[in-house]
Amino acid sequence: MFKKAFLLIIIGLMSFSTIACQTTTTDVTTATTTSGSVALPDLTGMSQSEITTTLNNLGLTPKFYFDVSVSYDSEDDYDKFVMYGSDLVAGDVVASGTEVRVYTTPLNLTPVYYNDLAAYDSSLQLETSDYTGQEFIADGIGEVTVERYVDGDTTFFRSGGQTFSVRYLGIDTPESTALYEPWGKAAANYTKERLSTAETIVLQAEGDRMDGNGRYLAWVWYIPEGEDTFILLNLELVELAYSKDKVSSGSVYSAVLLQADWNASLTKRRVWGELDPNYDYSLDGTQMSIQYLMENFIEYVGLKVVITGEIVRKLGNGIYIQDENGYGVYMYMGYTTDAQLQVGVNVTISALVPTFYGGSPQLSSYYRTNLMVNDDDFVVVPEVITYDDFTFSLLGSLVTMEDLEVTSISYAATSSSESIHVEDSAGNTFVVRIDDSTGLSSESLGITVGSIITVTGPLGYYDYDYNNDPESYNWLAENFQLMIITSDDVTIE
Amino acid sequence: MKKFVLLLVTFVIALAFAGCVNVGTTASTTAGTQETTTLQLAEELPDEEVEITFWHIYGTDKTALLDQMIAEFEAMYPNVTITDTSQTDYNTLREKINMGISVDQVPTMALGYPDHFAGYIEADAVLKLDDYINNTTEYEITNSSSSIFGETVTIGLDLDDFVASYLEENSQYEGGYYYSLPFSKSTETMAVNVDVLKAHLTEIRAAGITISDNGFLSHDVPLTYAQIEALADIIVDTNGTNTTTSKCEYLLNYDSSGNMFINMSRQWNAPYTNTDGEILIDNDTTKSMLQYVQDLFLNNTLALPIAWDQSYGSTNFKYGDVCMSVGSTAGVNYNIPTDADTQENLQFGQFQVDFVPVPQFVATEGDSFTVSIDGTDSTFTGSLSAVQQGPNIGIFSSASSAEKLYAWLFLKYLIETDNTAKWAMNTGYLPARLSSYSSEAAIDLTASYSTNYADFLQIAKDFWDADGEVTWATTDVRWNYLYSSMVANIAQSQNTYYQYDPAFAAGTNSAGSATARVEAGYCLENIYIGTLASGSSYNPNTALNTMLNQLTW
Fold first, then answer.
1. Which of A415, A331, A366, A336 is closest to B336 using CA atoms?
2. Do B20 and A415 lie within an 8 Å CB cutoff?
3. Which of B16, B48, B338 minimises the CB distance to A86?
4. A261-282: per-residue pLDDT in tens?
5. What is the pTM (predicted TM-score) of this model?
6. I want to staple B543 with a disulfide (CB 3.0 to 4.6 A). Which of A171, A178, B88, B526 is the partner?
């Protein structure tokens, strides 16, 4: 009897040691044949909370992971079981007490602050009395109207007889203009959707009035159509995972934005890891000629392309590249510099993203690692064109225009860029532009009103009122510009 | 029989409490860790699926390379998925981790500064890494789909290969344990407008300062502040930058006023703080130092970015408002005037930029130096010091044993010799490991250019040896890496006297180290603003007392 009892104790201790060994070395213990085992249930269609209840009832603990390898089309797709981890499937037997790895789709966003900010902290809620009789530029708070949408966190507003650009405080939505990033276009569309139907919009300054790019900084409040309470759009964009929290710790909204950011991050939605169904995740992009790109540009906006051509001009932080068929395109480099990008060098550049700036087509997202310098070389002969040849597909191409009479010269308000207004022999008028980055001026080139000039340069375009919607926008010949980049590009009769 | 049974019971009980028998670990004790390691690792690498979440603050310019390293690691360990998330800035990163600690929602591993980790340690949330560093376990990779199938992976890490001061920074916590390891390290260097210096060669040489025919200062021997004062006499025009006389309105900008206060305190041997969290700034040496700084502010020898209502002085350095600028090695390219700048703002055009060590008060550690304060000469004992900064990486203790093990292997992978060199060349940060400086492994920097770190360093050396007159073609890819190479060389020359800021959390009577650094910066800014408003009648002790009041209670 004594021996039997001892043996039982020893066996018990040995099995304890075995379990201890298993749990310290692995997180998932697979099927065992002991009496404490359980078959994994079919969790299809269940949410995380339902999964937790189901597994807990079986003596199991779920450990959740997200499947962000695919994009989801419908709100109904979120918070749903995808699969078990560790190669387990429903029906497999595991030890009771096991922590089971479970993959689900990202979770539903359940905002709690932006649509009830007063409940969080009534002192933060904007009231009509806070801005009545005040104007944003002069007083730091005031009602405005939208002049033009740019992207998710920048909009042109109008107030006090002025139109000005405003960068939203405390957030940073992904790019969707000069650069394309996942969820950038979605964020831009959301901002536009909310403000375009708003009954009232109020801007509220806090801290520095402007950023380094001359944009006003503001909290953006609006009253949705048919409602009577202001919503803080900046906070809404964070709660809906269109932006991460970027607010400085000194803001009155720091705490609520941080909490909103935290809640959104747990869902893995949008900027927190979800695949954007409208973003091109390919590494290189589609290879095509510049001619094909320019003839089909709008189709490729936001996607990635690979192009090959000769660098024909450098202008500020960008270059013009042209193919053998005479079609060119402008590539914007942002703050990146690259000694290899010199006029006369033949290059192949991958993963460039077609975008628009002021209606002008351009390629963005240049990284040095995507550059190949080719041995090929060809001579680019600029085509001689007239005003009647102004077409979208020629934008970015090196062209020559002859016998243009200078009618006036105007100067930019904030730089030394010049617009030389010219008229061709048929009476058409347009602008020949000298960018401040060239270091040139009409004076240094000897151009005066009345001069007859012939100019060789890339064809550009600029429309201040470009609506950021290439599908509906009409390119007008009057907004085409011929760029003077070197002093050799101009001859004066 | 009873004896046998008792022995058997004792053995089994011991076995039960020890856990697994089949461990391939050996316990070890090394310097810096006062206790024997207790980590027990499985005999074989766990083959279960493991997801590692890694929080950082990097933008797309750096995540491209990080993504590449992640992909390589995942190919080595196919059962591991690394999910990295940018939390956009360090404050957000820290606040979200602190928030996550309270609800058990922290990442597996994260980037952070020492004061971040000091807080995590207080919350008992971060993993002591010594158990891995000192572990001698080796694993053979038996997964045939692994990119390193058949190879052997070691768990331990040879710390002798790391820059000593980086190790000190990461083991400064109670008990001397490592709760993080160095990753993106940086320091400060001084950008110089070479064209302006070249215009004053004769005067500069007459002042006893070594300068080449094309205006390059020494890259090995730092300027002293006495020489800085001499240069100010030659180069500064307090009426404003004058391109005709090649003079700047200010001589030297210091980007980080917090760094300036702390680093200068070390150079003067002026007490600042200590790891016990004591605020030590109320002393005569600090007061003398601040009076000296005020004198430099008064005659435009020194300026802070608030002089131009900026956070950094690099733009005004490019514009020619100031001829020298101390800033982070990570921001080197912001100092270079290029085609992307509005050319009319560049008063000296696209001038040649050089980088040299940050100024010191003495040439050798422990030398004395004399400065004139309010017209009276005072002598102090000096130290060499350059700021050591940049984040480290730690692992959180709430992760499972398999997650911790793979997080450790991922951390080891990120700071491998070649990877830390590659990260450094691509980002402007500095290699954490000494072997990177001599690694001969070629690293692809672009599709058509690869180099090793030694050759990367050689780019600047060749440029300096030619006194700037290299015969490289304008399209030579070395131009792309010239300035990064310059600061990497300068950083290497300073790494014997790197100093780190002791990290401590807020206590019952004083603020934490992060707040101390912020207030140190405000102190100098207050002196700058006060001096601009009131001239020499402004008493810098006013700003010091304000700082003291903010940090102690």
1. A336
2. no
3. B48
4. 999 999 999 999 899 998 988 8
5. 0.80
6. B526
